[in-house]
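[job 0412] stage=fold_complex status=start
inputs:
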Amino acid sequence: MLTIAGRKFRSRLFGGTGKFSSPEVMKEALAASGCEMVTVALRRIDLNNPADDIMSVLDRDRYLFLPNTSGARDAGEAIRLARLARASGGGEWLKLEVTPDPRTLLPDPIETFKATEELVKEGFKVLPYMNADPILALRLQDAGAVAVMPLGSPIGTNQGVLTRFQIEIIIAQAQVPVIVDAGLGAPSHVAEAMEMGADAVLVNTAIAVAGDPVRMARAFAMAVEAGRIAYESGLGAVSKDAAPSSPEDGLGFLR
Amino acid sequence: MKVFCNGEAQEIAPGMLVADYLSQLGLDASSVVVECDGKILTRKEYGSHALQDGSVLELIRFVGGG
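[job 0412] stage=fold_complex status=done
writing structure:
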């Protein structure tokens, strides 16, 4: 079973709550995914539409909230959002995101590291969203991150695990859980990450924008489970040369 | 008196408490976090913190996100 900062998770699929067509679809899709931790964001209340409180549909006993710092462009903004999240009743868990470039939404490694150091001091359980950089993963781990969240590909792109080589190194080296986040667009992508030995994956867009988000959530859950079982079972070695799967002996009668 | 809430100027009664302001806006205090003049208020403070003329308020809450 997956353990992060002393908390156990049966499901290795974490869900996002953005981009769903309605709170009801979100609730049903999250239930179908089996996830136990969900990300949420913090935003200004729309004073002209204050009834729009989609979080009221989520059962806090069922889901651990993982507030994110999306929208932060530097460490200072991320720290401010983190403190607001805690004051909002979001608890100590935090997905730290610092993305200064709105075109790529790639994380700023230096600001992410600075914010991790500060927020760990303030008692947060920090899960930093990071580029798939093995050295940075170790630095964030040493700074007190309870898990690392390397990206498969940029947020919302559905391109899958483009960072495979680096993520393999991160998994081999990290002492904290590795959660592959961002860009996982199909069940096959999460199966790949899990087969590589990722401890968990986080999926939002691919489920939320699917034609049928509830069934897609189920498909992702099955892929996560299949990938994990395959990893634990030990995959066969990859080879350039063919190797017959039928016996080579006993063909004398043919020639 | 005037306060600036989520970027908008709002006319409110002098000395209004944060809790009363939230209920005037139709907001459930348990789902809102209030930052007043750069300081985050605890929920306990909503019932005792009086707004000042020119106060800058940010009313924040959780929304869907990834």
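[job 0412] summary: The radius of gyration of chain B is 11 Å.
[job 0412] exit 0
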